[in-house]
Batch of 4 targets.
Target 1
Amino acid sequence: MARPVPAIVILGNGSLATARTIQQVYPGALIHGLADRVIGADRVYREFGATLRDLYQQDTPIIALCAAGIVIRTLAPMLLEKGVEPPVLAVAEDGSAVVPLLGGLGGVNVMAREIAASLDVAAAITTSGELRFGTCLLNPPEGYALGDLELGKRFVSDLLAGETLRIEGAAPWLVQAQLPEDPLARLAVHVGHAEREPAANELLIYPRNVLVAVSAHVANLPGAIRDALHEAKIAVQSIACVLACDTEMASPALREAALELAVPLRFARDVGSVGELARNAIGQSVSIFGDDAIAIAVAEQPLDPSQIGRPRGRLAVIGLGPGAAELMVPAVKAELARANDVLGYETYVRMAGPFRADQVMHCTDNREEMQRARHAFELAAQGRSVVVVSSGDPGVFAMAAAVLEALHESTDASWHNVDLEILPGVSASLATAAQAGAPLGHDFCVLSLSDNLKPWEIIEKRLDLAAQADLALAFYNPISRSRPWQLGQALDIVARHRTPETPVVLGRDIGRPGQTLRVTTLGQLTPEQVDMRTMVLVGSSTTRVILRPDGRSWVYTPRSYGDKLIPIQQ
């Protein structure tokens, strides 16, 4: 399994050449450049601290080309427990220094050496064990898991104090290390999958060479797996993955068991028994333990879960927000980072990027929503991780409804087995309202004025009723070349129930370059002031305007009517 792709974060153009050199070491890494100060970065950000903290929370390795102190002060409030942080490094802008800061157990020193080699400098490694022995004993390579971290720290401390060690089991990564070996040493590095009680004089390292094939119908599945392993005298830490029949792909019990055991969940075609399922999946001579419900297969070498069966396909429908990177929620950023395929209207897909070379973009016309939704399910049903992109919020006049409609119409079991999730975004109406103040601070109604998918008569009726109810109004798709007359008719309907002085907010491209915000009134508003990229917010009878010192206005709708309550027209 590949290591997570790092993010390279720079503050100015002077760092760009160094960043490009580092990027050659990690081809999938994106260079994040500060807006208005970096030209040519792969991704733009506006706030250094928020960007670093987002990446840290997503467990993304961070290579920051700036002073180490800036990184330390930024991440200090988030440091909770040593051993769980992603690698974090500070690199001098000119590439003259590479300083590993965090993630000693996540391979930060390995990264530091790789980066330093590319820059032809020495990495500033300060970890005593690595300096003395040339390796971090507490950070075994992929395919192996450390036993008890606290006992491991004591073990390394004893080594540094002058003790020797012996190695029991196969540890090929330690062959080149400068370890003080002695076959009669008190301290021992023990590598093996057997269940073993931790001891102060042992460093236990478990090869992940165990596959557990299960049925989803076992009660208390995590406990049953632990019991079966204990009976076979096999350590839980050696589980590489849990395997089940693909007919049980949508089982919540399987998903929860894999999450509790912190191992990947894979699926294969039903072959009659869990024992045969395990044997066929590994494809080599294995030892099988267990019964008809749980089978344990032990391989000679660590297993790569990505080569066993296939994962449950995932389809996430995401909202980018209005366009600014800082208004995109962290869960959406994480989903984009893990995706194999990204589908959507080309403008929105480009906004979501840039993407790694291994990520596939599927750009379609904005009117092809159902075809796009079906294509997304076809990809996800193959076991891929798929993202469907919407601007704003995916559930507000966007792709979430189309995806669910496609699923509702389908009888394909593989589509219904897909892990489907809808992730929210900041909608255009809310982004515009926030810029203006709080025009939607009380009850409000959101309407699309497009009659592409519903009759204009329905729009007129809803407009009239919402205006009668004295709701603040948010208009999506207010006007276009093919619909030049509808906004005028909509304003005429609203004007039957509102005074000409009613505040109106016009937000164009809010959250994107060139955004504009204008406050006017219902009496002054004409269709010529609006285009398809404008969000129109019409106040209620209680909406108010406050002048600001800079000449602009705050618009708000009080949360209480009080004595201002206006009777609804009958």
Note: The longest strand covers residues 239-245.
Target 2
Amino acid sequence: MRVLVRIFGALAVAAAAAGCIQTKQDYTLNPGGSGKVVVEATFQAMQINLGNQKPNSETKLKKAVRETLKKSTGVAAWRDVEYKTTDKGKVFFKGTAYFDDLSRVQFKFGGVDIDMLKPTLTQDAQGRMVLALKSKKKGKKGQKRKAPAQLTDDEVAIKVQDQKAKYLQAKPMMTAMLSEMKIEMSFRLPGKVVEVTNLKTTDDGRLKIDFEGAKLLQIMDGLVADDQWMRKMVTSGRDVMGEGPAMDEAMNEKLYGEKGPVRAVIAGNLKPLFDYKAELAAAKKEYEKITKDLGMAPPIPVAPAKGGGLKSLRVGGIRLVYFSDWENRARPFNDKKGYTLSLVGKLPGSVLKVSGGELERAVADTGEDLMPEQKWDRKIHFPQLSRDETTVIFEVGMRLPGRNVKGIKEVAGTLEYLVAGAIKKVDLGMMEFKAGAKGQALNAVVKSVKASRWQKGMQEMELQLECSYDAVKAVKLFDAAGAELKLAGSSRSGGGNRVTFNCSRRDGFPPRGKVVVEIHDKLQKYRIPFCLRNVSLLGKPLE
């Protein structure tokens, strides 16, 4: 019971943290979408503590700032970062973020995404720059809502009352989340504003917008109390609590004053407002010091391995399965009867991938042979590589030791790893995105472009390449104008010297575009021995 109380208490803390966010963001934009933004935010540090240890205020503060810097995406570098704990125990954060593409920027404070107003910068058919702001949450895009079939007036009334009741039940949590939330955004633009809706012009020429959670909550109260509006939601099939109200132009009128999008069109002679490359270079140098002061400086790169032995090898864990009925699916740990060691090895340098290995000797302290009977079971499957690419974690499976066995005399074998040189970009050239179209390198061919069977509104493309599967780092697609296409998902399959790249897009693929494949150049394969001696069955060294 105490555990449940702590968990629900943690959820309440999360809701309160979301509602306590207040942020100001002052953007300076260049043509093309690069720019900088001065960010101020006051928020409650997320500290869900289910144990007894409580970190001090300085530790909590630095952790909250580290999380903000790590989890805010699309930022190339930060500078002028300052932070403190306010008199009310909240975190105050301020900094200048530099970004290559406004549309990819997403800030996260106190573990909460700020997505009520997501700015994007695009180009219209006339070549004008378009700034737009809208909620990141788009609901069930691509899925057609089915209206309830032939509801009577009484059935509609029942559903309306049911949704009203659910809203009242959720109201305390929504109040905690929205009552104090405030988002203020302003934009300095590199040209003349020729069209604008739902954005105000400041005295110094910026465009500005304010979002207040309390106002949204007040609007929601009014809508839910409106029986006519609720009947319209029910008969259209919309779940007010599940999906919320449509954040459309009508809602914009209630929030910001005009029925229309939050949008500005910039035309004329577009000129950069500042030297992005020069300021970014300076910001990156300052950011290195900031990350170091916060204890998040990136590790010094380790030179690639070139053969040799493991620097160290130890047992990370063990697994003993005394009984397993495989055919009857009575399988402890979902495994066969046997004994498994999870080994942790320090590699002689950084590697691209540990591709496999094989157990060659496994002997108990009694001299008993513990080698698996099947060759497949002697293979090392799915080894894992640490984030810094210098440590490997792998499992070796053995026969179940006999009654008199107290330890392992020796377990040995070999691992196989790959090392690569620099990244090489292979441009497949301009090609059509249709079945049968061919690229100018890697014998690339589009195998298919079709609507997804599993996700409505999604289009999938299958591209076949002739190159080493392990050598492919990334595949990027661009439209005919050179803008990178944003993919909803991607995956690779294959082996040997043939790779199939599968990707999908919500808005479909353009008729033509370019494909660039990033390849690990000069791929080399090494074999490295491993050997561990004299450990107990619990994996501890024997004296």
Note: The chain has nine helices and 27 strands.
Target 3
Amino acid sequence: MKPDRRRLLLAQTILALSGAAAAQADVRMPKLFSDDMILQRDLATRIWGWADVGEKVTVNFAGQTRSATAGAQGTWEVQLAALPASAKGQDLVVLGRNALTFHNVLLGDIWVCGGQSNMEWTLGSCRAPEDIKNANFPLIRWIRVPNTAAESPQEDLPPNHQARWAVCEPGNAAGISAVGFYFARKLAQETGIPQGVLASNVGGTNIEKWIPQPAFAKEPSLAEMTQRMDAEVKNYSVAVAQQVPRLEKWLGDVKAALAAQGPIPPRPEFPIHPSLPGSPQGGNWSHLYYGMIHPLTKFGIKGALWYQGESNGSEADSYFVKKRALIGSWRQQWAQGDFPFYFVQLANFQKPSQDPAGGDGWAKLRQAQTKTLTLPHTGMAVAIDLANADNPDDIHPTNKLDVGERLALWSLAKDYGKKDLVYSGPLYQSMKTEGSTIRLTFDSVGSGLTAAAKTGLAPTAPTPQAKLQRFAIAGADQKWVWADAAIDGATVVVSSPQVPQPVAVRYAFTMNPVSANLYNKEGLPASPFRTDDW
């Protein structure tokens, strides 16, 4: 688009907005509402929107009728009583001066699918043509939030947002988040409850972009970052104030030019908010939360799925602190208590290292991800065995089937009452030195520990006679060597003749622990761990 055309459209938009308050407007609903949508079951449901000040709005759904009057800001809201799951499509009708009807609305569970490109990765990119061909799942509905940066919390998605809820079928399944699809498919098949995939993610983004600014201030260890943000916002306010006279003059010149049908004068340069992309500060915080998460927070959900961390891959415990801030702030904004938050531990990536000490690449970040399990109602799908074997340098494993289904196991066990379901691979619990050996104990051993191998989409294959790999051991000198490791009941005993007095063990503590082979007999891999804090 030519610069003069852009300036003309901008000027016309400004003039239109300046007169909008005086004009009557139809009842308007958030962009999240459309035909084929899902509303969250078993939860008092907020229905909200905009209308003329003082206008009465009535909502009808599933035998319930609620009314509200638009307040001074033109906003209105009603609350429907909680309703059980229903696979029967119903109409949601909103009546004001005009009428809006949303058809084929189901009641089920809605999952916000957040993170970066591995959550954004679509089913069509997964080499899964049969899954697309057979994706006739009327119980699964999905919608994608458009990529939107904002410097302050937005109440709705962008006006030009054309996406809408879709019934999952072969004709559109290629566009759904693959992790969200496989997660929802397993839940729908196991429970018969409709599942909604609400995808809000952007490739290549760090976690800071998805956290509202006030949440950083609640974490003492992020004080320096918070102070920098505050200083940048203060400087921005000063810079904006300095531009106000020039903008006021420009608006006057625009009105005069439009009246005279003359050329639109160039718009003055305007400071970019420091949180936004393109700002001198780099736009590294909050703007995606404000544009892509905050508009969702009145919409009832079941929980969230999160696949992110690659863009924070050099971090260690600081990532846990930021993730705690993210989870806490999302739960606070939705005001639904500690809703489920399930996430993916990063997959193996790049060529494997033969250094027994490990610690390279994402090793420490994976430890921070594991630490997130200390937060209430969280769950982690381990993915260190799912990278593309033919291309370890591909940061996007195409096997999203196991990722989605491993996440679903947590939900089936924690949210849907599936008893005696093994939902996690072995998680390191404790160690005990026994002479020249160290004995390791684990949670989530299931029906027992085993050596196993995972190849592509094939089920995990037990290899009980195989030697356990990727265990390292060290003494007080902190010199690591590869160790002998053997399963003993529900424990693993680790030793090395080179370390007669061991004090610490590491397992799969490297960027690509490609040969790591400790699993439980249910086929779920052990998470990487270290017993030391060196």
Note: The chain has a mean pLDDT of 94.
Target 4
Amino acid sequence: MIKKTILILFLSIITINAQQFNRAQLDSLYNLYTYLRGVNTSVSIQKEIETDPAYQKCGFGLAGEIRANMSSFSIEQQNVLLKILQRPTLPLSIVSPDGFFRIHYTDTGTDAIGYDINLFAQALDSSYNFEVNYLGYPPPPTDGTEGGDGKYDIYVRNLVYYYGQTTSETKVGATSWTSYIEVDNDFGAGFYTHGIDAARVTVAHEFHHAIQIGNYAPLNSGSAIRLDDLFFYEITSTSMEEFVFNTINDYYAYMPDYFRNPARSFPLNNGYNLTIWNIFMKDIFDYGIIKKQWEMMPTKRALEAINQSIFERDSNFGNELNTFGIWTYFTNSRSIPGLYFKEAANYPLITPTSSTNFIGSTQYDMTVGPTANYFFEVNLPFSDGVFYSIITNSDFIKADINPSQMLDFSLSIFDDGTGSKVLNNKYSITFSRDNQTFWNNTGILNNIVVYGDSNSTIPDIENEIFAYPLPYRYSQDYGRGIAISFETNSTSNEIYFNVYSTSLNLKYADKISGLRHFTKNSKNYSEFYWNALDKDKNKLASGVYVFFIKIDSEIKKGKLVIFND
């Protein structure tokens, strides 16, 4: 009987070295892959697959695991697997309008294409033009005359459970493999997205897999994929769906898994569920930072590449991962138009990693995985509301060695003002951990960011300039107004400060003096407070506002949200 452990195996293959697979694990791997490719049937596997849409997404990683272990399977199993993995043959073909692809298909039988072949060809060219011509990734290498000519080959056929699969074939360079792509022929019942829209996001996804193994395969390796970093292959390919076809949103189907488990180490995710990490990277920096990470992938592990690329942008992984936690908090009913994720209203709410009722000054001992965010929810008494602490560990070294290990920390909450971080005029906290290097902590009280783990009391919301609290509510002002902090090497104590509505109507303009100067993460910052009143000393209407700071010859720009409730 095939048990649930077969399906758990798929999500855990990234933590098991190929040489360590025993016979039972190999059999489970064989049974799962052959089921997903329609070769065998199993009611128990079917039931498990129906509860997790990730199994239907992409065969790239599982096929890579099969290839890496091929010699360990029995001869009978090898014969079946090699047949599945061999290049298909289909009777009809067309070339895409821009000439980049040859599309192989049929209009009869179980493999008959169920959507417009011409729209499909256009989607392929759109993916190529965006990922290669706009983002600057090198195209995958030619396969010579395989498939009839040197164009990249796409095969449209009934994949049963998969949206698509990119299969590596021949190593043609130190970090370069040829490949071909298979795409499902109709995306019928059981798929989250259907028809031509499903085909569009699939080609955006799979074509980047072709780019990955075509240019960034592990150096000095007999494999096109570094299986320990499979999560990063899938994060990138799934984010390409959103970048190329941003109105389709098939990635919504996989997000709940991450939002239920944010304290799980990055490598233990399937990658589809973490598409928003690359969306966050693009929004905070630009598309180029993701490409830079891939350029490091032949010689570096994925987390090391992420850490290095962020460091080169004058930040660090811990700060960005903690800020990512703030972004993932402000979703769904907590989303704020104009801030954080553009599609945040459509995302799930984060599930607290743990939750407790405050009963007096208490120390809470907890654990979190390396490269993960722990969301600790504290229900305060009476009308004091709800406090969230986002505890971040960014130890990518430990995550690479053993992503399943858990790291200790404690959070003490006080109602007598003795904590090191102040929440308001009543509550404070102290965050304790063994090594500061890989830890960050942010506090959110009643949906307002009230502190960050840094040398100032303000969390990093943007790279150079940020406001606190964010959003700002007049009803919860603590007598200070809005603190605004920005990076500058100027030592001037005076600035010119202008605030505009999003329609660029001037709401406030004045010279402000008495700045506070401080250093954080080896950078120089200045800070001042604004009372959040307009030029006539009236409260502003609820909304998003843009502000400009002129200090000496520098101009800084930032954004804030005000709620007049």
Note: Confidence is low (pLDDT under 50) at residues 1-19, 453-463.
